[in-house]
Amino acid sequence: MLHAVHMVKGFDGLSVLRDINLDVSKGETVAIIGRSGSGKSTLLRCLNNLEKIEGGSILIDGQPLVKDGVYAQEKELRRLCLKMGYVFQNFNLFPHMSVLRNLTEAQCCVLRRDKATAQQYARKLLAKVGLADREAAYPYQLSGGQQQRVAIARALALDPEILCFDEPTSALDPELTKEVLTVIRGLAEEGRTMIVVTHEMAFARDVADRVIYMADGVIVAEGAPQTVFEDPRVKAFTQTE
Questions:
Q1: Integer Cα distance of 136 and 100 in angstroms
Q2: Distances, alpha carbon 106 to alpha carbons 60, 138, 157, in Å
Q3: Residue 39 and residue 177: Cα distance in Å, rounded?
Q4: I need a surface site. Which of 9, 20, 45, 214 has the fewest CB within 10 A?
Q5: Mean per-residue pLDDT for 96-111?
Q6: pLDDT tens digit string along 140-194?
Q7: Which of 27, 65, 18 is nearest to 214 (CA)?
Q8: What CATH class does 2-83+161-238 carry?
Q9: How far apart are CA 122 and CA 141, in angstroms?
């Protein structure tokens, strides 16, 4: 479903991603772990076209988002990017919009759904994440965990084929973290295709089909959770977390 080869990215002369190769299959949950500054979030942002790579290729469903460093035309970029959903670590909800409108706005503007259809779907997704009774609330009236669950529902509202999470619990305390991870675990059990950048090692071990450990802009270890977590380099990392 997603195929990336020889990805290269830098900032101000500093190499952040160095020859990254990544494949994600349909229905697979991939957890990306590593120390802060290892390139995890930059990798995710590049896959979603929130950052531009300087070399390499990214294909979604076999179609090139970027090939050998050359990006597709704008219309094709938009079409391919809609196949990817993104959940930010700091929620990024629209503060002046109700929860319901946060979920319907993009449906109406991007997918051209009529308001009634968008609202019906939004309510279904809010029930899915346990927030059916909060549709009239505004983000400031919600806990961090509730805001992140709204953000997940908003990402789902555009029917992405691949759902990406950038450290979705990093801004939350342990109790709220549990709320959000329960929702993500449920999505994994449904067989959704997901890439999750996380510091939650137990979640990565228990839920992911595959774990990727990054360090200094490269993939150091990759494979089934039980294999990766036995790697001495990964053990050294987890013992300091």
A1: 6
A2: 21, 17, 8
A3: 23
A4: 45
A5: 94
A6: 999 999 999 999 999 999 999 999 999 988 878 888 888 889 999 999 999 999 9
A7: 18
A8: alpha beta
A9: 19
Q: Which residues are CB-neighbours of 187 under 8 A, at least 6 positions away?
A: 152, 163, 194
Percent of residues in the chain assigned helix, strand, coil, to nearest 5: 40, 25, 35
Amino acid at 153: A
Q: Tokens 């059916």, residue?
A: 132
Percent of the chain whose pLDDT exceeds 70: 99
- Dist CA 218 CA 199 (whole Å): 17
In tens, the pLDDT along 202-211 reads 899 999 999 9
Check residue 176 and give its pLDDT.
Answer: 87
Angle, helix 144-156 to helix 174-189, in steps of 10 degrees: 20
